[in-house]
Amino acid sequence: MSPFHEVRFPVDISLASSGGPERRTDIVLLGSGRESRNARWHHARRRYEAGYGIKTLDALAAAVAFFEERRGRLYGFRWRDRLDFKSCLPSQEPAPTDQAIGTGDGERASFQLVKQYGGAHAPYVRPIAKPVDGSVRIAVDGQELTAGLEFTCDATTGLVTFAEGSVPAPDTAVTAGYLFDVPVRFDTDRLEVDFAAFSAGAIPQLPVIEIVP
Description:
Helix content is about 10%, strand content about 35%. It is mainly beta.
């Protein structure tokens, strides 16, 4: 991943922002009237507009300071997506059996955190690269393990590593629960604010885009 700062954008601003996942699909209309569709991107890419969350001059000052420290588009950072920041539903608390992240073989000691969307027809599995430090819970065949003793999780990559003696046995289900952030960067090198308009309710534009691993 390109230069990245392990710091979260002000949550009080991001939780009031707008945005969501974007995909890129090619659609070709055939002579028969039928369509041929092809997905150009394997992973979705999320876009957000942080400006909607800036309601006060103090919030604006915080956003400008954060923008300047990131040097515009240069450095990535963490973003809290209000709709999607847990391994479970937003109203629930993460459990160690929320998401399947692999199957043990008796030798493999490292597993990447992932989150599955859908299930019956074409489930999408999303890599989770920025879990919240200390939030990750792991279970093997439904039995929760002890963080720091039986496993560790790198909060900068989402890679779970089992300690010697705790490597999942063959055919055991490895599952995880966690909180996570989205790795993003600003999608502009320019931040322009009309203070007269801002005081009247207008907002600055501050686009943010996901960094896809």
